Amino acid sequence: MANLEDVSNEDLFAEFLRRMKCATKGEKRIILIGPPGCGKGTQSPFIKEEYCLCHLATGDMLREAVAKQTKLGLEAKQAMEAGQLVSDDLVVGIINDALKRPACAKGFVLDGFPRTVVQAEKLSAMLAKHGQEINNVFNFDIPDSVLEERITGRWVHLASGRSYHSKFAPPKVAGIDDVTGEPLVQRKDDNVEVLRKRLDAFHTQTVPVIEYYTEKHKVTTLEANAPTSEVSRQIERALGF
What we know:
Layout: H1 9-23, E1 28-33, H2 40-51, E2 54-57, H3 58-68, H4 71-81, H5 88-98, E3 107-111, H6 117-128, E4 136-141, H7 144-152, E5 154-156, E6 163-165, H8 192-215, E7 219-223, H9 228-239
Parallel strand pairs: 1-3, 1-4, 2-3, 4-7
Antiparallel strand pairs: 5-6
């Protein structure tokens, strides 16, 4: 834990103002569902900040639990080193631990989980033990053909994480980072073959999750092919702000 004596007055005051703003916010537990490249990663920081939620990305949480050598992290590491999938119960347990953080007091925005109906059921059971439930599920609806164009046109500067798109956000010089002048690369997963496999998995495993939450009247379908600002407005309308 950081020593508060070492935190600047400016940072302390900014955090105080943030907490004062958040005190008036209602609790929200939100799930983002959509195929790769649909825009979840763009909208999750906006939702997190606007509604004072913690952002739970299961991949990041697993890596953090392993790095911190928590009980569940050690179990996850053991499974991964044995070439096994991390169990649904273990992932739900890691989410449960994360919800104890002060940053999650107002709720969370969950990205990357659940991917199957079984996972959704386990998540619901865990929340029910705390007297909680999922409030909103946002379905990022977008044609596969658009995703193919989005994904295959992505270029990144590995050192900084800056990303470009050959059509929608091209660098000033093709293949070159605007800031450093260093070469851009395409990630090995950003190709049509990998994308189609991931889309097949999404349609087979995750679309039933949308149906699961639709039956519970939790789903808002977003027109994810709209401009980023319009997608944000769709989310604001659904949350009643």
